[in-house]
Design a protein that fits this description.
This protein is an alpha+beta fold. The chain has 22 helices and 28 strands. The strands form 8 sheets. The protein has a 6-stranded antiparallel β-sheet, covered by helices on one side. GO terms for molecular function: 5-diphosphoinositol pentakisphosphate 1-kinase activity; ATP binding; inositol hexakisphosphate kinase activity.
């Protein structure tokens, strides 16, 4: 084959990424997700070959595809010896070092290296029977002794071979004895218990470590030295039954890694030179202990993980072209302004982006709950002794005085509450229980409603809880960040013809974007779900575990900034008052009434209130109507609006009885509701009128009864005349 170094490195071509592993691994959904993302960048040509080439001795490694970067990892039935020959020959950049992966094939060697580099792991003793070695074994019901080294039961027995998953757990006599055999998942089984097996195996080489019961089994996945993803799963040592979600996948829960676990992940990446790596951790007594390192491993079904993994592989590959990591290369931008200020340089159009304003909503939240009560009791009004404005209580110290006052009020009402206060007592007990249970998102608000002689005599008590950010909401907030800077701050569409030009353009783009994002300012409303979303967004945007200082702003000034302070707000309030005055009027208005003027039909007559100036119309045109106005409105309604209804009744005489019964039912249900007025157009039909009566039931009782009787009387007159 042609040597890689013999070609023209300046020729126009993409970066060739080779993937050499078992076909089952390269065709998995997780691998496809990552490779599809790499292809989408337009900078890579991905070449995949599996065991049909790698394991075929007739195909020389010189004839393998030539690549600039290589992803290769071992698995059961796939030996890396020929891949290592290829790497020595072609010298591609390896995402995971192929030589150190030999360590994962021998658990004894793995544990020795973990101890050598200070990575915490449990104490081990070994039964090494390789090359015909003899091991002195002494075993009782409570301990084992190998070559003079003692370990108490329960113990875990692991074969030396890293790909052998036939792991046994032996229990001591006081634990009931017996052995649990762990194996690769078969349907919903991952282990089986055998009560009659109490002695360790003596036919091979094994590692022994202490078994800890009742601890969390943690899976950690690294993407480079600066990122680690943690998941907790049900341990196979519990009962051997695999917990699965509705999709049939093993159920795993996301977990936040401790500082020690993050340090361990970085240490493993650097020691074994494995950027994409998975390892198992046991949390015990506040510490983390590594029990196995698996090498190349993926998180399954996590799109955010796939995005992060593809971005990291891209950085490593493009950075390897110049011999350095892509992020460590600092080149001055082409525009002088970009070098001096935190702006983003668009290399395609030679544009400079100085600022970018984006509005986000918080992530998914739990349902919000609210309870509002009208209060006139001195125990509640006491909260207004130093203020006449709204009182908001969020912190536990703030709620404590209110809780004491609430307990006094409940105790007084329980001793002798009036019948009208029994329902209020029930609601107050609900408020007390919400406070005592310390529900998430709890907030107490007291709003003054009536003030007499400078004192609050009536207030509204609002108890709110819930509305906190869910785990899915937190993941959504993290997902906002890559979408934000990948869509808003896009990479150059023409990265360059040669690999060196591509690396330079990519470095320039990353430097410009990083500098631009250094000046990010986030303004969040003063609510926990909003601030939690903002923190997650910032951490993911700046790629840091901590929120940089002076980045997140959330105070009263920010709340005023986010509230509606536009000029239209005042006009909206005026319109609301005007609509309320019309709706709460007891008069029945029709189109012929000068006080009813829909938008676009205002009369030009000087006598019309709508034709007057807005101030006069608002001040004098919508006073509550008198009894005379109400009677006049009814007469106008009968003379103009009901003529079409009477004609309708004549044409549909068959349905008259049914419609009359509907009207009677509406009157019976009406009772004494007199809140809202009622509008009828001149050209509406009877069905619509009856529908409104039944739906709203807010027409004044007397007006509706008089209107109905008038319809019946007119109908009788028509019949007599006919």
């Amino acid at each position: 084959g042609e040597d890689k170094g013999g070609g023209d490195t300046n020729s126009s071509r993409k970066c060739v990424l080779g993937v050499c592993a078992k076909r089952k691994k390269t065709s998995s959904d997780a691998m496809k997700q990552i490779l599809d993302r790499l292809r989408a960048y337009g900078e890579f040509e991905v070449v995949v070959w599996g065991e049909e080439i790698a394991m075929d001795e007739s195909i020389d490694v010189k004839d393998w595809p030539i690549c600039d970067c290589l992803i290769a990892f071992s698995s059961s039935g796939f030996n890396l010896s020929r891949v290592q020959e290829y790497v020595k020959l072609r010298k591609p950049y390896c995402i995971n070092d192929v030589f150190t992966q030999n360590i994962f094939e021998n658990r004894m060697q793995l544990y020795e290296i973990l101890e050598k580099y200070g990575i915490p792991t449990f104490r081990h003793i070994y039964a090494d029977r390789r090359n015909g070695r003899e091991v002195e074994v002494k075993e009782t019901d409570d301990y084992i002794m190998l070559d003079g080294k003692k370990m108490k039961k329960p113990i875990v027995e692991k074969p030396f071979a890293g790909d052998d998953h036939n792991i046994y757990i032996y229990y001591s006599k006081d634990k009931g004895g017996g052995c649990r055999k762990l194996f690769r998942k078969v349907k919903n089984k991952s282990s089986s218990f055998f009560a009659d097996i109490n002695t360790i195996r003596r036919d091979g080489s094994y590692c022994y470590e202490q078994f800890i019961e009742g601890v969390k089994d943690l899976k950690v996945y690294t993407i480079g030295p600066n990122y680690a993803h943690g998941e907790v799963r049900k341990s196979p040592a519990v009962d051997g039954i695999v917990a699965r979600n509705p999709d049939g996948k093993e159920m795993r829960l996301l977990t936040v890694l401790t500082a020690e676990e993050i340090f361990i992940a970085r240490r493993i990446v650097n020691v074994f030179q494995q950027n994409i790596c998975g390892f198992d951790v046991i949390r015990y007594n506040g510490r983390a202990y590594v029990i196995d390192v698996n090498g190349w491993s993926f998180v399954k079904g996590n799109m955010r993980y796939y995005d992060k993994c593809a971005r990291t592989i891209r950085k490593l590959c493009l950075g390897s072209i110049t011999g350095k990591h892509a992020l460590s290369i600092e080149r001055p931008l082409s525009a002088k302004t970009c070098a001096a200020k935190k702006v983003f340089h668009d290399g395609d159009n030679n544009h400079i982006l100085r600022s970018l304003v984006t509005v986000f909503r918080h992530g998914d939240r739990t349902p919000k709950r609210k309870l509002k009560l009208k209060m006139t009791h001195p125990e509640m009004l006491w909260m207004f002794k130093n203020t006449k404005t709204e009182v908001k209580l969020k912190k536990k110290k703030q709620i404590l005085p209110f809780q004491k006052a609430l307990n006094h009020l409940i105790a007084r009402l329980e001793r002798g509450a009036r019948p009208a206060e029994l329902k209020l007592l029930q609601y107050l007990r609900v408020v007390r229980s919400v406070i005592e249970e310390e529900r998430k998102g709890l907030k107490i608000q007291l709003k003054p409603k009536k003030i007499r002689e400078g004192k609050v005599v009536e207030c509204i008590l609002a108890c709110k809880w819930g509305g906190t950010l869910t785990r899915m909401g937190l993941e959504q907030a993290k997902f906002y960040a890559p979408v934000f800077w990948s869509e808003m701050l896009r990479a150059p569409s023409n990265p360059g013809s040669t690999l060196q030009e591509q690396a330079a353009r990519f470095t320039e783009y990353k430097g410009s974007r990083s500098k631009f994002l250094e000046g990010i300012q986030v303004f969040a409303a003063n609510e926990s779900r909003v601030k939690s979303s903002a923190r997650a967004f910032i951490r993911e945007t700046v790629q840091d575990d901590d929120v940089p200082p002076n980045t997140l702003h959330s105070d009263n000034k920010v709340q005023d900034f986010l509230d509606d302070v536009s000029k239209a707000h005042q006009h909206i309030d005026i319109a609301k008052k005007r609509v309320k005055s019309l709706v709460t009027s007891k008069a029945v208005l029709v189109r012929s009434d000068p006080r009813y003027r829909p938008s676009g039909h205002a009369s030009k007559s000087p006598s019309s209130p709508v034709a007057k100036s807005p101030k006069k119309s608002h001040a004098a045109g919508h006073q509550p109507p008198t009894a005379g106005h109400q009677k006049k409105g009814l007469n106008n309604l009968v003379t103009s609006g009901l003529r079409s209804l009477i004609n309708k009744l004549k044409q549909e005489s068959k349905n008259t009885r049914q419609k009359r019964s509907l009207g009677e039912k509406a009157l019976q249900r009406q009772n004494s509701r007199t809140d809202l007025g009622f509008w009828i157009d001149e050209d509406f039909d009877l069905t619509e009128w009856e529908l409104r009566c039944l739906r709203w039931l807010k027409v004044p009782k007397n007006a509706l009864k008089e209107l109905y009787n008038h319809i019946v009387a007119l109908n009788k007159q028509k019949r007599l005349k006919r």
